[in-house]
Amino acid sequence: MEFLVDVRVALPAEMEAQQRAALLAAELQRGRELVAAGHISGIWRIPGALRNVAIWQARDATELHELIASLPLFPWIAADVTALATHPLNAD
Amino acid sequence: MEFLVDVRVALPAEMEAQQRAALLAAELQRGRELVAAGHISGIWRIPGALRNVAIWQARDATELHELIASLPLFPWIAADVTALATHPLNAD
Amino acid sequence: MEFLVDVRVALPAEMEAQQRAALLAAELQRGRELVAAGHISGIWRIPGALRNVAIWQARDATELHELIASLPLFPWIAADVTALATHPLNAD
Amino acid sequence: MEFLVDVRVALPAEMEAQQRAALLAAELQRGRELVAAGHISGIWRIPGALRNVAIWQARDATELHELIASLPLFPWIAADVTALATHPLNAD
Amino acid sequence: MEFLVDVRVALPAEMEAQQRAALLAAELQRGRELVAAGHISGIWRIPGALRNVAIWQARDATELHELIASLPLFPWIAADVTALATHPLNAD
Amino acid sequence: MEFLVDVRVALPAEMEAQQRAALLAAELQRGRELVAAGHISGIWRIPGALRNVAIWQARDATELHELIASLPLFPWIAADVTALATHPLNAD
Amino acid sequence: MEFLVDVRVALPAEMEAQQRAALLAAELQRGRELVAAGHISGIWRIPGALRNVAIWQARDATELHELIASLPLFPWIAADVTALATHPLNAD
Amino acid sequence: MEFLVDVRVALPAEMEAQQRAALLAAELQRGRELVAAGHISGIWRIPGALRNVAIWQARDATELHELIASLPLFPWIAADVTALATHPLNAD
Amino acid sequence: MEFLVDVRVALPAEMEAQQRAALLAAELQRGRELVAAGHISGIWRIPGALRNVAIWQARDATELHELIASLPLFPWIAADVTALATHPLNAD
Amino acid sequence: MEFLVDVRVALPAEMEAQQRAALLAAELQRGRELVAAGHISGIWRIPGALRNVAIWQARDATELHELIASLPLFPWIAADVTALATHPLNAD
């Protein structure tokens, strides 16, 4: 099943540059794994902030939660999840 | 998969009593079928309005949409859908 | 450039069934053209309502507006447009 | 009487891992007691966050408040409570 | 049990004066019955609109819904219901 | 004059237990004085949070502000004040 | 006592010009009376809409409601009322 | 003085095509006059709707209101006005 | 030109009493200067919080910003500014 | 392509004056470069806060994000981006 997930990251401005860089690098690495495993099939940045929208693929909402919770930035993330249904234009 | 669906019905106040009664009766009948088929496993009224919250069961969001769209009141309905994941307390 | 467009359709409940069906058929036909022309690269239904989210491709916001305004349902549509930037995971 | 309770937990990201784990374990334990006592009859996780919705059973809102306030995570919780009425589909 | 109910009435401005007056008179009459029966123990007008807040008494949310739905203005009403718990200052 | 006051208390979760208990005890004591003086004629807890709604009596908004500002928890409080008018059902 | 009242007028666009002009003239006339009687001590238009903010003077919220309800445009008005307290800068 | 004005037009979908076209033509004509007179110094369409944002120039809010109210579409318009101050980057 | 300015002050609850008192005294002193200079022609406290609404007079939004930024509490302030136009009732 | 960008800066009130001044000076310097390069074609301050709206020019949303992220205040900024289409009044 597919989900639209809108992820906003709220890293505190005063976080040390090194910790910040390490977290962002780990996040990118975990993201690559999720793309490779087919769990993220499309992802875009919302300009002007640390925020992205992506199309996630998971068996159900339970697996989806585990995938999002596996992100290194999870404690700093606010994620809005929207379940997606097939649209007639895609189902042709 | 389970979904929390919050349904608000906005029938115009000036609708004829007969049409209103017929629609509500048809809605109740369709609701009974959805309960019998296991698609609605729990449903509650939000007091003070024509509004309910229910736990729906569907293969995925595509089937869920078809089920909601099968309601006779669908053209007058605003429905908010939330995908539900298993909670550790239920998975024990 | 890519845009996330969230389209909600508000057809009045009392619209005649024939006009409604004709409008929805014309909308689907125009949608197929936009998909074929590469202007819509992904589209999903939000369950529970006449609402969809889609990834649109256009030279710029001016062309995007013309494409959305070409939809037969445009007078009944509320559309939220979000400009999308490339995400590092896609740019790899 | 039944209530729909939407619980969002806001643990600070910088909380020590040990305190966090202890709190979450105590919360799970208290949750099991509430399920066993029949005060929580259904509970689901909202994917993407530390958030759940549940159906609570209590004599009245006063008892419900005491039950929610007994959660170890109560100081970090924002809870929205909705009183639930019987729906005709359940009352059949 | 007690509930705080916030009632906003949205009568269309173009309703005939006679129908409007009859509805408001019937509403007042039904209100007097609810006060006499102890279902409304306090009621105040929010200035500037057809809106009131009141403390309602009912066995549970199911009875409360029936009481609100018995108002002649119910089809034009939007009601927000908040379940109330005993406060230590009142429980002394 | 009467006012509906909705008070939400936001004590930081990490406040020391002793300071917290002392503040809450002082708040309860000041509340008892306000009840005894007739300034609070009804008060209820909103379940699930440190939040209450109450009917306050004061000469005018200036006195009301002084009364609310006299609460020991005032620096942690967000209060919404609604001026109340007499309702025909009460004025009978 | 003083109140800040924010009044938005929602006349339907299709109202006949004559009825519209008559209503607006009556509203202006009633406004002049309220100014002359000292019930409106300051009034400003919010640019871009049929909307104003004003400082109203009334014994209490009950009288204020009667004054606002006496406006010819009352059935088309949405009014937000804020009770005002004396500010130290004015009380000097 | 400069103002940012966000204008949303809500023409009813069922308006006759001829009336609609006439109104939009008159609006465009009045817009050209406002541009020529220097009252609109920049204007952009928000894609996906009948909506624009523009930089308006007026002596003060009183003149601005008269300019906006002179638009043929004024009865169907919702306009949000933001007063603009000089930014140091422009004042260099 | 006149502006309606809604000022909410968010001093942290844990600020030292001495710093708090000094800031509030300085704010009151600066407020007196602004009143004396004719920049604030009316000011009221919103009861229940550190919040006020006032009518400010300034040449334009640029001067208004400088006046607000001159307040000692400016770093803790959230201010909403509304440009005000002359109302026909005042212009008589 | 053009974008309307609404930037709100949330510097903590307790930041040291020297760091604050250095950041604001660096921000102004970077802003001058963006103006000189034609990336910001108009910018205004929203009075009463550290907030501005500006018209930005960029190839696409990806370049726009890089430009905004190059601001020294980026970690303290919340930016809302709106894609802008050509308006008929500008395209004449």
UniProtKB/TrEMBL annotation, chains A, B, C, D, E, F, G, H, I, J:
Pathway(s) of this molecule: Aromatic compound metabolism; beta-ketoadipate pathway; 5-oxo-4,5-dihydro-2-furylacetate from catechol: step 3/3
Class of the enzyme per the UniProt entry, highest EC level: isomerase
Annotated catalysed reactions: (S)-muconolactone = (4,5-dihydro-5-oxofuran-2-yl)-acetate
Record-linked InterPro entries: Dimeric_a/b-barrel, MLI_dom, Muconolactone_d_Isoase
Enzyme Commission designation: 5.3.3.4
Key word Isomerase present: yes
Pfam families: MIase
Record key words, sorted: Aromatic hydrocarbons catabolism, Isomerase
Segments forming domain Muconolactone isomerase: 1-88
Family: Belongs to the muconolactone Delta-isomerase family.
The protein's assembly and partners: Homodecamer.
Protein name: Muconolactone Delta-isomerase
Species in which this protein is naturally found: Conexibacter stalactiti
Taxonomic lineage: Bacteria, Bacillati, Actinomycetota, Thermoleophilia, Solirubrobacterales
